[in-house]
UniProtKB/TrEMBL annotation:
One of its GO terms (molecular function) is methyltransferase activity. SUPFAM superfamilies: S-adenosyl-L-methionine-dependent methyltransferases (SSF53335). This is Class I SAM-dependent methyltransferase. It comes from Amycolatopsis panacis. Residues 53-141 form the Methyltransferase domain. The keyword Plastid does not apply. Keywords: Methyltransferase, Transferase. Pfam families: Methyltransf_25. Transmembrane segments: none annotated. GO terms for biological process: methylation.
Length: 215
């Protein structure tokens, strides 16, 4: 089956920017109290069990969650990002893979992190990702996703010092809630905050959702 053009474009874009992306975002987590708070709450709520950082990029959050005590691994569409992640975090596992078809058994994850990794998928295809997340999360398991709030598609032609071609979707909070609920998750919390720092120009949202124990 031929993959959608947006998947190929996203992979190529992140392969292109992998090294500079990792360098420019280095230390960014230390500057965001809200990001650390949400990741800390996620780690506490997940507890024991395998956690997937899905769309992990260069592994900066995978490494952070590991320091918080989670049994975590990363998956990313971009081989270039995975190469950087493996080099930066040699003690952790990183795989190349698609969030739409994860190489994981049903119910394999106690927790799933989708940190700004839904944003390159067009809205009509997001239910497919949500259904796949629901499949791989164990009953009682937790999902945390973060994304830019809005109602527009931005075509990126230059990012992180490179010429690229990829779309980034800003998403309405209610739309994300509905997509996750329709997939079978129960929404547990929603936090929307104002933009911070040089990298953000729109409100940012965090949504946690749990897969019911009885499905």
């Amino acid at each position: 089956m031929t993959e959608p053009v947006y998947v190929s474009e996203t992979r190529t874009a992140y392969d292109t920017v992998a090294e500079s992306y990792a360098e420019m975002l280095r230390g960014l987590l230390e500057e965001s109290t809200w990001d650390r708070a949400m990741l800390g709450a996620f780690a506490e709520l997940v507890g024991d069990g395998l956690v997937g950082d899905l769309g992990c990029g260069p592994g900066r959050l995978t490494g952070y969650l590991a320091k918080l005590g989670l049994d975590v691994f990363g998956v990313d569409l971009s081989p270039g990002m995975v190469e950087v992640a493996r080099r930066t975090h040699p003690g952790l596992r990183f795989d190349v893979g698609s969030m739409a078809a994860l190489d994981l058994p049903d119910g394999a994850l106690a927790g799933a992190l989708a940190w700004y990794s839904l944003i390159h998928t067009p809205r009509p295809d997001l239910p497919v990702l949500a259904a796949e997340l629901h499949r791989v999360v164990a009953p009682g398991g937790l999902l945390l996703t973060a994304f830019q709030v809005g109602d527009e598609v931005r075509h990126l032609e230059h990012a992180y010092g490179h010429d690229i071609s990829a779309d980034a979707h800003r998403l309405p909070v209610d739309f994300v809630r509905d997509v996750l609920s329709d997939a079978g998750f129960v929404i547990q919390s929603v936090l929307v905050r104002e933009p911070e720092g040089d990298f953000e120009s729109t409100p940012q949202a965090y949504v946690t959702a749990r897969k019911p124990r009885s499905v």
